[in-house]
Amino acid sequence: MSILYFLIGCSVLLALVFLCAFFWAQRDGQNDDLYTPSVRILLDDKPPAGEEK
Amino acid sequence: MAAKTLTLTTCYHCGNDCADEHLLLDDKDFCCNGCREVYRVLSKSGLDNYYAYNDHPGANRTAKETRWDYLLEPTIARDLVEYTDDQLTIVTFYIPHIHCSSCIWLLEQLNKFNPAIAYSRVDFLRKQVNIRFNNQDINLKQVVEVLNSIGYEPLISLQDVVKKQTLSQKDDLVRKIAVAGFCFGNVMLLSFPEYLGISSFEESFKVFFGWLNMAFAIPVFFYSGFGYLRSAWTSLKHRTLTIDFPLALGIIVLFVRSFIEVYTHAGSGFVDTLCGLTFFILVGKFVQRKTYYHLSFERDYRSFFPVAVQVIEEGGERPVPLADLQVGQRIRVRHQEIIPADAILLKGEAMIDFSFVTGESIAVNKTLGEVIYAGGRQTGGALELEVVKPVSQSYLTRLWNNEAFTRSQDQRIETFSQRVSKYFSVALLLVAFSALAYWMPTDTTRAWASFTAVLIIACPCALALSTPFTMSAALGIFDRNLFYLKNAAVVEQIAAIDTIVLDKTGTISLNSANTVQFSGFLNDDDKRLICSLCANSSHPLSQLISRNWVCAHPAFVSSYYEVPGRGILGEIENCEVKIGSARFVLDQDKDVNQSNNTEVHVKIAGHYRGYFSIQHHYRDGFADLKKLRQQYKLYLLSGDHGHERQALSDVFELPGTMYFEQTPQDKLDFISTLQTTSHKVMMLGDGLNDAGALKQADAGIAVTDNVNNFSPGSDAILDGRSLKKLPAFLKFSKDAVRVVYCSFGISLTYNAVGLSYAVTGRLSPLIAAILMPLSTVTIISFTSLATHLAAKTRKLL
After folding, report:
1. Distances (CA, A) of B347 to B344, B381, B439, B598
2. Per-residue DSSP letters for B363-416?
3. Which stretch is the leader sequence (chain A) (predicted)?
4. Which of A4, A23, A36 sits opposite B122 (nearest CB)?
5. How far apart are the C-alpha atoms of B192 and B205, rounded to whole Å?
């Protein structure tokens, strides 16, 4: 059962990694604007086919 | 006429009807030169795609001329940019017109127009664009001109509240929630074996789990929950009991008792309760903080006034920041610009629109040498003025020295939780100490156990959550109905009021939409004459008449004469036409008769033909305000003259409820007089002239047609279209407060159940762990359900 010490250590470590990832995202400003990127991803760089004159 | 309507086309750029003008380019129709120019700029840069994402995404571009020279002034530019070095400049502009995905696409392609712009990113909800450019190749003015040329004119003001708001929000609440949530999750998992029961064989795990839990409790206590401890401490120092006090007490007791239990191996402690409690109250705080980033509720005159003023000096004009304007300086004010400070008119024909200051929508003529008060908008040619008072001392801005603008806004009405928390804290301490005193003589350990247990179980988590969740649900419902509240506390402010004061122009009547009716008889020829003459005058009433009677073939006006403030006189096709006030046209004092409307009289070739009456339009739902009379006292405060008294008396029927010709200071004083007789006053207003009253009122609501325009600082912004829902809004805010009362009742029931365990001193961590989240979940679901139900019954959903 001593394996539990190791497993719990691993799980806590993993959770800490996620927490740090969240901190990084927050500091990086990824949560500042939660709407515009969802529109931006739909906008193409080139004109949609058939729309060109 | 019918054929014309059939061929009526819509502008390819802005989607308006091409009524007056009709321009063609690339087989596309444009309503004005401005729209066509934007299209030309876009198609030249190969950005036609703009139109592919949305139909008519552009803004109408008729007659917009703004001077950006002041952006070259280093002192002004420094206040606007966020960062600059000798290469790069970063600036964020607020662009009210951003409204669709095409806007995002185009504004993020700014480098196609000028390669010196390195980067542009749009924040759609805040209607902001962040631009980075190389300041060697392009300057701030040119960047703004690029934006303007494609139809996205930024709104520039030195009091950029939008930016300030986002900055002040940058505390680490989200991070605190993340830490608390992280610890809460882990602790719950690690407490699991403890609740199931650990056999003596695995006793060593118990110690391990205990200490691991304590390790998780440390960041929760010292980081996430520390704000509560600090605020409880400051409130104690000020000898007030806020809701934070019992919360902080709970947090401390949970932490200390858990530590002692783990240390002495007496038990497993209440770490999961501690983490859960902290997590939930932080989430409540987060919910309460919901704000509309794109709306600004804190505004003073600086956001209405121009950023810079053109000062005339030897050798030309120079833009000077508004704050640096000094007495004695000569300034130039152009068409549609606002007079920044009280000044004497030196040169030019002044037609000042004071609707901003007084609410009177008809422009006033000023003669040379007269003092023009700040806040008026020039509607004619350029003026030359000499400043006689500094901006901060002028007629309008003096209001801002009033104490109404300096006091804290959040302290006006004591919220329910503030009121209750005093009694709650006292009762809590009373129960805790009674339990301690009861067990002390017989069993010391049990005495301490019961004492701490009471403080733990009675911790008002649900009480702390019920208000934020109810109010934020209410906020969301108001939001759907185009009523935007500054924060959740405003709901309670609105629920508490008993008196409503309304401004007239712009609030209940519309400034722009007036109807013109003619009493008398006119044939088509007469109409043509009147219209031709009126087209020559820049007076708003003449403009209104000529707009209403579009004539196809204007006649030639051979002589034209305008008497300022009286009327116009002209000779058209050998026929003398006289239009103006009764005094001017009829040589008599008919102006002062009992008519309710503004009248313009007409005399053609010496014969009196009748008069135009200009009726103001009231907003939709103005008549519905009558319903409010049963519960509220209604007052009208207008800066306008009393010529609409009759039309308004339907709603304001009691004598002494209508006040006309009120200055901004009068309005403020009126509200404070009402407040001294212990009335809770709500003020609805629109312009800068109501700003003082809005601040002074217990709930100040700015009414506006376009929420993205500048509206005066207030507690809430109401879209003019929703004025008719005002009675429903008021009822609903009362419902929301009732929901808070009910949820408080539920929370007390849980506490009573928990306390009955706690006082015996036999509270097991399991019961605490079940009761705490259970009450939280009940409260949250009850408040959101009840609030939505209330909204349904008030027909707001």
Report:
1. 9, 10, 90, 30
2. -EEE-TT-EE-TT-EE-SS-EEEEE-S-GGGSTTGGGGGSGGGTS-GGGSS--H
3. none
4. A36
5. 12
Residues of B in contact with A32 (CB under 8 A): 123
Is residue B48 within 8 angstroms of chain A, CB to CB? yes
Does residue A34 form part of some domain?
A: no
Q: What sign results for the dihedral spanned by CA atoms B202, B208, B211, B212?
A: negative
A40 closest CB neighbour out of B52, B104, B178: B104
Number of domains in chain A: 1
* Residue (of B253, B269, B276) closest to B765 by Cα position: B269
Q: Which residues of B touch A36 (CB under 8 A)?
A: 104, 121-125
ipTM score here? 0.87
Q: What is the pLDDT along chain A (53 residues), one digit of tens a residue?
A: 788 889 999 999 999 999 999 999 988 888 888 888 888 888 876 655 444 43
Distance CA A9, CA A12 (A): 5
Residue A53 in domain: no
Residues of B in contact with A30 (CB under 8 A): none
In this complex, do A36 and B125 lie within 8 Å of one another by their Cβ atoms? yes
Query: Nearest to residue B324, comparing CAs of B312, B338, B336, B308?
Result: B308
Question: Over 80: is that where the pLDDT of B6 sits?
Answer: no
The dihedral region occupied by B441, where left means phi > 0, alpha psi between -120 and 50, and beta the remainder, is: alpha
Most B CBs within 10 A among A3, A14, A26, A43, hence the mutation to make, goes to: A43
pLDDT value, residue B630? 87
Binned at pLDDT 50, 70 and 90, residue B407 comes out as low
In B566-606, beta strands by DSSP E: 567-572, 575-580, 598-604
Say if strands B716-719 and B699-704 run parallel, antiparallel, or are unpaired: parallel
Residue B559 to residue B556: CA distance in whole angstroms = 9
Q: Could you tell me the CA-to-CA distances from B767 to B283, B319, B435 in Å, in that order?
A: 23, 71, 19
Residue type, B552: A
Q: What is the rounded CA–CA span in Å between residue B704 and residue B709?
A: 8
Residue B328 contacts residue B387 (beta carbons within 8 Å): yes
Q: Please state, in angstroms and rounded to a whole number, the distance separating the CA atoms of residues B54 and B577.
A: 49
Residues in A lying within 8 Å of B, measured between beta carbons: 1, 4-5, 8, 12, 15-16, 18-19, 22-23, 26, 31-33, 35-36, 39-40, 42-44, 47-48, 51, 53
Contact state of B125 with A42 under an 8 Å Cβ cutoff: no
| Rounded distance between C-alpha atoms, residue A23 and residue A31, angstroms | 11
Cβ atoms B219, B282 nearer than 8 A: no
Please give the residue range of the domain that contains residue A1: 1-28
Q: How many CB atoms lie within 10 A of CB B214?
A: 19
Which residues lie closer than 8 Å to B501 by C-beta, 6 or more apart? B634, B635, B636, B637, B670, B671, B674, B681, B682, B683, B684, B693, B697
With CA atoms as reference, report the closest residue to B251 among B284, B227, B287, B267.
B227
Partners of residue B205 in chain A, C-beta under 8 Å: 1, 4
Q: Does residue A49 form part of some domain?
A: no
Question: Structure tokens of B11?
Answer: 């502008």
> Which of the four pLDDT bands, split at 50, 70 and 90, describes residue B663?
confident
Does residue A33 belong to any structural domain of this protein?
no
Residues 6+ apart with CB under 8 A from B345: B366, B367, B368, B369, B370, B371, B372, B383, B384, B385
What H or E segment, with its residue span, contains residue B676?
helix B664-676
Give Cα B108 distance to the centre of its chain.
27
How far apart, in whole angstroms, are the C-alpha atoms of residue B4 and residue B172?
61
Q: Tell me if B123 and A47 make a contact (CB, 8 A cut-off).
A: no
Calculate the CA B472 to chain-centre distance. Answer: 16
Inform me whether the pLDDT recorded for B8 exceeds 70: no
CA of B141 vs chain A CAs: smallest distance (Å): 26
